[in-house]
Specification:
The protein is α+β, with helices and mostly antiparallel strands. The chain has helices at 223-226, 238-247, 276-285, 299-303, 309-325, 346-361, 371-375, 398-406, and strands spanning 10-11, 18-19, 52-56, 60-62, 70-76, 81-89, 97-105, 119-120, 129-131, 136-138, 142-146, 151-160, 165-169, 176-178, 195-197, 199-201, 203-209, 215-221, 255-259, 290-296, 329-333, 367-369, 376-377, 380-384.
């Protein structure tokens, strides 16, 4: 199948409306780090372009859709680029999943899409793709330019599936949509998408070819990285705020940000998704262009798994070694306060403090991000600062997530390895 070349879309100054051509979308070249004019840049041109991840999700087993329905996943890019490719995953599925239609467009209001923006995705030139259990597929590149910090709607129609879906449980941070029965992937109308959902289904990553000198930064962690407790549909997780800071910087700092946090995830044990040890290769080292990972795991191991500091340190040392073996910079983040939550006890607090002391003082990471120091109450350091205290006294609110992102030294994000 031949894909029609996409033409330019240019933001109106001082307005949120975008002018669309009748055949597709591009971004203004100035929207993503000063790349060449989109008319002169296509996938594969010029030499020096390379894939990076502009959006990602940590995948896990989940339920919800059934054969014959259409899922419309709403996502938000970090860095911009050309040649958009979407990765669909069935790594947790119990049977092959078949998609006979997949599209990507520009969200308008709710499940509605901007008229004329929805574009068919292909896989090896075909509109239908079958993904075996345990496997992932990457779509063919779409001609055209995707802007930085931009919402996209990825719609897939399920022709066949098993009992278990692969997806990401977002816990009310982003609204996506599930349709009534039928193939509605190409629909720009919201009419069939009657069920709002707070999960992404089968969508694992979005990749682009950006300007040269751009790499991928992976935020790897649990619910605090996942953004639990942040305002719905605002992209107020700390990795989102960090992506905004990075975009404001001139090259060569530019990095795509892949948030693969999973709520409830543990460093040492499988549970809410595979353990950090088990998924590190897939979710971090296999990301195209990966340069840096920010590691924040261990809170659930302490609060739910009764892990010791020695066990957590051994687990993180393994991840440090695996990152360094592939030349990836790894930054360690301290664990934020727990008092007031169901995870707190004097014994758990002692483990948290010992673990944090090792993260700060061991010198084994390429850099340290002290999220604990940023978010704690100076008058009672085992608790969140009230202005940052969000869900269950265990997670920050929007202001806390912003403060966490603001505390990350940007100079540490591209250590020389």
């Amino acid at each position: 199948m031949t894909i029609t070349r996409l033409t330019a879309i240019r933001p109106l100054l001082c307005a949120s409306v975008l002018i669309l051509s009748t055949v597709g979308w591009y971004a203004d070249a100035n929207a993503d780090t000063g790349a060449a004019s989109p008319a002169a840049v296509a996938p594969g041109d010029p030499p020096g372009l390379h894939a990076v991840t502009t959006w990602a999700a940590g995948v896990q087993s989940t339920t919800g859709p059934t054969t014959g329905q259409t899922v419309r996943n709403i996502i938000h890019t970090s860095v911009g680029g050309v040649g958009l490719r979407l990765k669909l995953s069935n790594v947790e599925g119990d049977a092959p999943v078949v998609f006979d239609a997949a599209y990507v467009g520009i969200p308008d209001q709710g499940a509605a899409l901007v008229a004329g923006s929805n574009r068919r995705l292909t896989f090896g030139g075909r509109s239908e793709v079958t993904i075996p259990p345990g496997a992932e597929v990457l779509s063919d590149p779409l001609p055209g330019r995707v802007p930085a910090a931009y919402d996209l709607a990825v719609s897939v129609h399920i022709a066949a599936m098993g009992q278990v879906a692969t997806g990401h449980n977002m816990y009310r941070t982003q609204t996506s949509y599930l349709s009534t029965p039928g193939d509605h992937a190409a629909d720009e109308s919201p009419q069939a998408f009657t069920t709002p959902i707070t999960r992404w289904f089968w969508l694992a990553a979005a990749q682009v070819d950006p300007v040269p000198q751009v790499g991928t930064l992976v935020a790897f962690g649990d619910s605090i990285t996942d953004g639990y407790g942040s305002s719905v549909d605002t992209n107020h997780r700390w990795p989102d705020f960090l992506a905004q800071r990075i975009l404001a910087e001139p090259p060569p700092l530019q990095l795509g940000v892949a948030n693969v946090g999973i709520s409830g995830n543990e460093l040492l044990r499988d549970g809410k998704g595979a353990s950090a040890l088990a998924r590190f290769a897939r979710d971090v080292l296999d990301q195209p262009g990966v340069r840096t990972v920010i590691l924040m795991e261990g809170g659930n191991d302490i609060g739910a798994g009764n892990a010791t500091a020695e066990q957590l340190i051994a687990g993180e040392r393994e991840l440090i070694a695996r990152a360094h073996a592939q030349g990836v910079c790894i930054l360690g983040a301290t664990q934020t306060p727990m008092e007031g939550s169901g995870y707190y006890s004097p014994e758990h607090e002692a483990v948290r403090e010992e673990f944090n002391a090792w993260i700060r003082g061991s010198g084994e990471f390429d850099g340290v991000i002290d999220f604990d120091a940023v978010t704690r109450d100076p008058q009672r350091p085992t608790r969140f600062l009230p202005a940052f205290d969000g869900a269950g006294h265990l997670h920050p609110n929007d202001a806390g997530y912003q403060a966490m992102a603001d505390a990350i030294p940007l100079s540490d994000l591209s250590c020389n390895r």
